[in-house]
């Protein structure tokens, strides 16, 4: 009997089908008393590469903080809303914390692209430069 697994407190982009007793992505699957649904213990899931970009809006710089990082060689790019791309140098200001100087950039919205080729990681973060 296939039952839909639900992650408590998290939203998934895909539905996972498991049977009672299986492990879904290293999380324990528990059946409800009615066995019409199953729940995955949320504390069993480890989230990696949690990224915060702040302050937003920004004036002089942004800080990029990466918690639970599996990234090896991080590269940063800025993309303006009109499509201009600029490679930026990030100053490492702590373990998995980077500071990017924005003083030479015009005011407006930008996308910060964070990429690591070795782990095939690539994400974009929108911020406002005042």
From TrEMBL:
InterPro entries: Secre_tail. Residues 53-121 form the Secretion system C-terminal sorting domain. It comes from the Bacteria. Pfam families: Por_Secre_tail. NCBIfam families: Por_Secre_tail. This is T9SS type A sorting domain-containing protein. It comes from Reichenbachiella agarivorans.
């Amino acid at each position: 009997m296939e039952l839909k697994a639900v992650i408590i407190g998290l939203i998934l982009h895909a539905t996972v089908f498991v049977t009672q007793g299986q492990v879904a992505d290293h999380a324990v699957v528990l059946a409800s008393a009615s066995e019409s649904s199953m729940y995955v213990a949320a504390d069993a899931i480890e989230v990696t590469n949690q990224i915060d970009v702040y302050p937003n809006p920004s004036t002089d710089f942004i800080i990029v903080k990466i918690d639970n990082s599996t990234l090896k060689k991080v590269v940063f790019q800025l993309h303006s809303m009109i499509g201009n791309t600029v490679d930026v140098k990030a100053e490492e200001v702590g373990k998995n914390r980077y500071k990017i100087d924005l003083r030479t950039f015009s005011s407006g919205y930008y996308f910060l692209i964070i990429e690591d080729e070795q782990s095939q990681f690539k994400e974009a973060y929108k911020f406002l430069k005042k």
